[in-house]
Each structure stands twice: as structure tokens, then as C-alpha cells.
């Protein structure tokens, strides 16, 4: 019942935001069965006592509400003095608001109270009508009288009335809403000139001293973190399935019952040869790469082995495998590559294909048509599925048996032998490695890493799909990776860094010329062939073709049309100089569809600001005395 009520609490609770936390404060939970005259007092608000029992009750319920909303919330945070103080501050604010509402003559009638309770979803039957039995069951589960609960609901409704009273003057106009909407929904597109760092890399020479100086100045970048080696037994369907037997009849029956799950999309088995060229490379570089790929195509068409040509010429990672890509379906490759591959017949070689990676030649080794897979294609897959289903049913029993054996003093390796489950050894692993490899929580991985050498976990550790029992074998302390192992990476990094600096200098020089009336025409003429126009983009910062760049989006939306912006913007691999090509206002139909939502959003924002200011004023004038600060520690 409590869970049901908690899930629906936001429809009748009051939200008060504080700097330390933002939590749903459910006033109906706030005063469950306390006697304000006899309880010890934690604080006074304008001489009105705040009983300790009331605070503890509210603290517990607020923590429960937060756990319900976020099961992964850190328990230490919920027990911290900061969290307890935040709850107490909410309670103090509640008292101030209730007192102020009464001073202003606001009240909640019995009929209003009855209506408020009848609208609580937790008390509604299947037809949505108030059910007295559900209401009474809730009161019994809380050991709470109807009078106490109704007093809490009345106080909640009273504070809502106060909110409505205070925020009554908040009336946003349609003009306010339209201005906000136009600003938020407006889009721009830019003309831009891209300066790639790649054009400078070949001229940069990094000395041995530069590499050594960088290595010495940045030891943290080359420190191998502390790691551990563990041995473990995994209790998962996959691990235990090796001991399960599946007969052919079971496989065939499963296939017949699940044929729809074994449909096959159209696929091709392909190889490719790649000559890399940057997506934003100069025309001469693109042409040079195209000339090179055409020469390779001529060799392939003359009958030379495509795989050997790939090994010799391809600049892609699959070159060592003769360009082999294996089987893939639609959606697995970039669009131009996919379209070219699926247009080919078995054994055919494509004309050069340009993608963002460079120029490709594609050869199709085999084709699978879309349709139903046959049993032979999927029998191994089905065998594994059935074996894992059987194994899943035995996890609990085998885990219990293992724990009993450990409790009897048996070592983990002997438990492995007894149960016939593999005793495995991990690689050298950090907390992050363990968490990612096993799908366990970070805190569980930290517990494992913290084990003394030679000891085991007392309890099973939950992982994705099951559990593991772990024994620490070895601890490897942090160490500095040798310079010789890092030299190539450092040289590449410093080259890229210097290339980017040179690209920025060039971009700034171009920007300076474009921003000067005397030099703009000549500068524009010199870059015109490389000038590109983006697709429209908005304030979310995503610029199609250029990626996520909030700084560029913000500057573009603030700039004037046709005026070159007074800064250059960094992109992956280079810098751009840009100007606003066009401003695109939102369409009228979009405004009509979202008008009400925008009006409500403005009202809520302003109402919150007004009410928070009102509450701040109340707090500034109030006399609040904290009697038992020790209860917050």
C-alpha cells in the first residue's frame, strides 16, 4: 500500500526546492501519530516546537520516497548530516507556510478536505472511484488515525492555497510566450571554411627532447593504475550450460515453435580496399586518393587477386585479412558503402565509392537472400539457448551448495572441482575493468579489489545473469609505463597538438581578412571553392555534419546575417571560420501546437520564482532555534 501511495504522491504532495537537495516532500507522511506536547523538541519556529518524533518520521519517509524514485541512491548520502539538515529545513518551511496561511485567513473547508482525499489515486478502485476500504486499510497499515491523516492532508491543501494566493499576480502574456518560443525554436545555417590540422602534420617534426619532456611533465598520463588478479567461479546460465544435454528432438521442437525468431535479413559477405582521405580534405588530396584507388581497380579488373591487393594497398584495419569484412546486413555500414555493396552481384567489384573515411573498392564474395533460416543454420544457436534455459533453473541450488562447501572450510578451487564448474582466472583488472567485464556494480568491484591477497568473498557477488564467488590471487601496485612504450603515442599527440595550433592560426588569419572590409572580397574569393553551407540547426548545439558544438550554435544564433563571426571554432581535426547564411524562424503551426505548453512553462517558472522569494522573505523574518543539532550528525 505504501508503494502505491508513494507512486502517486506527486499529484497531491507539495514540492519545495532547496539548494542541498530537490526532493518530493509528502506532507501526508509528516505527522503520523505524534504528540507535540510531550515529544522532545528538535527545533522551535517562532516559538512553535518541532517535535523530534515528527522530524524522524518525515526524515524516514523522505528517504524512502527518494529510494523509490532512485533505487541506486547512495545510502551514505541519505544518512549524511547535509541530507538530514535539508529535511529539517523543509519541515521548518512547512511550519512557516502553515502559520502564514492561517495569518492571511486562508482555510480548507471540510468539503474541500473530503474532495482532496477522494482524489488520491491510491484510494481509487478499478473504476476510479474512492474506496473507503482502501482508505481504511492504508490507515491501519500506518497505525494512523483518520484525524491525524486528515490533518496532514488539510495542511497540504492549505499550503497549496497559499501558493495559489502568492502566485496569483503571475500571468505571462502571449507576447512573452511567443518571444520565448521564437528564440528557442529559431534555427540558423552557416557558411563555413574549414582548416584541417591534417594539412600541417607532415611538416611537423617532434624531437626526442620534446617527447621526453612531455613524458616527465605528465606522469599521471602514463601511470598504470593498481590492478588485481582474481580467480572465480561464475554461476550463470552460459557458464553452467556446458553441463546440460540437449537432444535433437528438443532442438527441432524449439525451432518449429519459434520459426518467426529465425528470420534472415539480406546479407552480403564482402571485402574492401580503402584509401583514406579526410572528409574535409582539400580537393587536390581527394583527387590524389581517387587516382590511387582507380589504379588498384585496374589491377583487380585485370584478374589480380583482390585479397592480395587489399593486403598490399588497403589503408584500412582489415588489410591484414585481405580486406575481409565478413557478413553484414543493411544499417551496419555507412550509407554510400551499403548502397554500393547491396547493388553488386556475387563476385562483382564496385567502382570507387567515397565515404567519410576515404575511397573504397568493394568485392562481394557471397550473398544471403532475406527469408527463413533453415534448421541447420540455427541448430547450434538453439542448442545453446535450450542448454542455458536448463542451466538457469539450477543456479540457485548449485550456488547454495557452493556456499555450504565454502562454509565447511573447502577452498574455492576444490569447490570448482566438486561442482564441475570451471575455476577461471581474470586478467589484471581495475575496478572499472571488473565492473564492465562482469556487469557488476562499482561498489561490488571495489569490494573485490579490496580483498586481502588469498582471501575470498564471504557472499556471492551479483553480476549480469547470475553470481560469482571470488578469490584474490594477486595485487599489482601502480607503475609508470616505460617511455619506449609511449614514445609513438606521445609523438603523434604532440604532432596533432601542434598541427591544431597551426590550423587555428591560419583560421584566425582568414577570419581577420574576412572581417576587414578592405580585404574581405579577395579573402572570400580565395576560399570560395572550399566554402560550405551547413544544414539548419538550433540551440541544442547539434550542427549537422559538424557534430555537437554548443559554443558555435550559441554564437551563430547571436550573430547578424552575412556577418563573419569574430572567433574561430574548434571541430574534430581542425577549425572553422563561419558566418550566418540564413535565419529560419519557427513555423506558425509549430507555435499553435506548442503555445499552451510554453505558456504553462513560463507560468510555472515565474510562479516558482515568486513563491521561493516569498518563502525566503518568511525565513528572513522568522526566529528559528535549533535545539538538538546533534540529531543531524
Summarize the structure.
This protein is α+β, with helices and mostly antiparallel strands. It has 24 helices and 23 strands. It is extended and about 95 Å long.
Structure description:
With 633 residues, the protein is an alpha+beta fold. Helices cover 48% and strands 18% of the residues. It has a 4-stranded antiparallel β-sheet. Strands 14-7-16-15 form a 4-stranded antiparallel β-sheet.
Look at the structure and give the mean pLDDT: 87
Instruction: Enumerate the spans where pLDDT stays under 50 for 5 or more consecutive residues.
Output: 1-38
Strand content: 15-25%
Helix amount: 40-55%
Strand order of the largest sheet: 18-5-22-21
**Biggest beta sheet attributes:** 4 strands, antiparallel
Counted beta strands: 23
Secondary-structure-derived class: alpha+beta
Rg calculated over all Cα atoms: 34 Å
Shape: extended
Distance between the termini: 32 Å
How large is the count of helical segments? 24
Task: Outline the secondary-structure elements.
Layout: H1 2-7, E1 14-17, E2 22-25, E3 41-45, E4 48-51, H2 52-69, H3 75-78, H4 81-103, H5 110-118, H6 132-141, H7 146-166, H8 174-185, E5 187-196, H9 198-201, H10 208-217, E6 223-224, E7 227-235, H11 237-240, H12 248-257, E8 263-264, E9 267-276, H13 283-301, H14 306-313, E10 324-329, H15 335-342, E11 353-355, E12 358-368, E13 371-372, H16 375-392, H17 395-407, H18 412-419, E14 424-425, H19 431-438, H20 442-449, E15 461-463, E16 466-476, E17 479-480, H21 483-514, H22 520-527, E18 532-533, E19 542-543, E20 547-548, H23 550-558, E21 569-571, E22 574-584, H24 588-621, E23 624-626
Antiparallel strand pairs: 1-2, 3-4, 3-23, 5-18, 5-22, 6-17, 7-14, 7-16, 8-13, 9-10, 9-12, 11-12, 15-16, 19-20, 21-22
Helix pairs in contact: 2-4, 4-7, 5-7, 8-24, 10-21, 12-16, 17-18, 19-20
Amino acid at each position: 500500500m505504501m508503494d502505491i501511495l508513494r507512486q502517486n504522491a506527486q499529484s497531491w504532495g507539495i514540492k519545495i526546492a532547496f539548494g542541498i537537495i530537490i526532493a518530493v516532500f509528502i506532507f501526508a507522511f509528516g505527522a503520523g501519530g505524534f504528540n507535540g506536547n510531550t515529544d522532545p523538541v528538535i527545533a522551535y519556529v517562532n516559538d512553535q516546537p518541532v517535535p523530534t518524533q515528527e522530524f524522524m518520521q518525515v526524515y524516514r519517509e523522505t528517504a524512502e520516497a527518494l529510494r523509490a524514485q532512485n533505487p541506486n541512491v547512495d545510502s551514505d548520502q541519505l544518512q549524511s548530516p547535509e541530507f538530514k539538515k535539508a529535511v529539517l529545513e523543509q519541515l521548518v518551511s512547512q511550519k512557516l507556510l502553515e502559520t502564514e496561511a492561517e495569518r492571511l485567513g486562508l482555510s480548507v473547508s471540510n468539503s474541500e478536505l473530503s474532495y482532496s482525499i477522494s482524489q488520491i489515486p491510491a484510494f481509487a478502485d478499478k473504476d476510479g472511484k474512492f474506496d473507503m476500504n482502501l482508505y481504511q486499510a492504508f490507515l491501519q497499515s500506518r497505525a494512523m488515525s483518520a484525524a491525524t491523516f486528515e490533518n496532514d492532508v488539510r495542511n497540504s491543501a492549505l499550503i497549496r492555497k497559499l501558493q495559489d494566493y502568492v502566485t496569483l499576480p503571475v500571468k505571462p502574456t502571449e507576447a512573452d510566450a511567443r518571444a520565448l518560443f521564437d528564440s528557442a525554436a529559431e534555427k540558423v545555417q552557416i557558411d563555413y571554411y574549414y582548416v584541417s590540422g591534417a594539412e600541417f602534420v607532415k611538416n611537423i617534426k617532434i624531437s626526442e627532447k620534446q617527447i621526453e619532456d612531455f613524458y616527465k611533465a605528465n606522469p599521471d598520463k602514463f601511470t598504470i593504475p593498481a590492478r588485481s588478479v582474481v580467480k572465480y567461479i561464475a554461476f550463470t546460465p552460459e557458464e553452467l550450460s556446458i553441463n546440460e544435454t540437449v537432444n535433437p528432438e528438443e532442438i527441432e521442437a524449439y525451432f518449429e515453435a519459434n520459426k518467426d525468431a529465425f528470420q534472415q535479413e539480406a546479407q552480403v559477405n564482402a571485402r574492401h580496399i580503402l584509401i583514406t582521405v579526410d572528409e574535409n580534405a582539400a580537393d587536390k588530396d581527394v583527387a590524389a586518393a581517387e587516382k590511387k584507388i582507380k589504379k588498384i581497380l585496374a589491377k583487380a579488373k585485370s584478374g589480380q587477386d583482390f585479397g592480395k591487393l587489399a593486403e598490399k594497398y588497403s589503408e584500412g584495419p582489415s588489410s591484414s585479412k585481405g580486406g575481409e569484412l565478413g557478413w553484414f546486413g543493411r544499417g551496419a555500414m555507412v550509407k554510400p558503402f551499403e548502397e554500393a555493396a547491396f547493388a553488386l552481384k556475387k563476385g562483382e567489384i564496385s567502382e570507387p565509392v567515397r565515404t567519410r573515411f576515404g575511397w573504397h573498392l568493394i568485392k562481394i564474395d557471397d550473398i544471403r537472400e532475406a527469408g527463413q533460416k533453415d534448421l541447420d543454420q540455427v541448430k547450434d544457436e538453439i542448442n545453446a539457448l535450450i542448454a542455458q534455459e536448463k542451466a538457469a533453473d539450477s543456479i540457485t541450488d548449485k550456488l547454495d551448495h557452493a556456499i555450504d562447501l565454502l562454509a565447511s572450510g573447502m577452498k574455492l578451487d576444490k569447490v570448482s572441482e566438486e561442482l564441475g564448474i570451471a575455476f577461471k582466472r581474470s586478467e589484471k583488472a581495475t575496478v572499472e575493468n571488473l565492473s564492465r567485464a562482469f556487469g557488476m556494480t562499482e561498489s561490488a568491484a571495489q569490494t573485490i579489489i579490496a580483498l586481502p591477497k588469498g582471501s575470498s568473498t564471504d557472499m556471492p557477488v551479483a553480476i549480469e545473469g547470475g553470481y560469482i564467488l571470488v578469490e584474490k590471487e594477486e595485487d599489482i601496485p601502480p607503475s609508470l609505463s616505460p617511455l619506449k612504450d609511449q614514445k609513438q603515442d606521445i609523438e603523434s599527440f604532440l604532432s596533432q597538438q601542434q598541427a591544431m595550433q597551426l590550423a587555428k592560426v591560419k583560421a584566425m588569419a582568414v577570419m581577420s581578412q574576412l572581417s576587414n572590409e578592405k580585404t574581405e572580397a579577395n579573402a572570400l574569393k580565395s576560399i570560395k571553392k572550399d566554402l560550405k553551407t551547413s544544414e539548419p540547426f538550433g540551440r541544442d548545439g547539434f550542427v549537422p555534419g559538424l557534430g555537437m558544438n554548443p559554443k558555435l550554435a550559441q554564437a551563430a544564433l547571436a550573430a547578424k546575417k552575412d556577418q563573419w563571426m569574430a572567433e574561430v571554432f574548434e571541430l574534430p581535426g581542425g577549425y572553422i571560420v563561419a558566418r550566418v547564411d540564413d535565419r529560419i524562424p519557427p513555423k506558425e503551426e509549430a507555435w499553435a501546437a506548442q503555445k499552451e505548453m510554453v505558456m504553462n512553462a513560463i507560468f510555472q517558472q515565474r510562479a516558482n520564482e515568486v513563491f521561493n522569494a516569498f518563502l525566503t522573505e518568511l525565513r528572513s523574518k522568522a526566529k528559528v532555534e535549533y535545539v538538538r543539532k546533534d540529531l543531524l550528525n
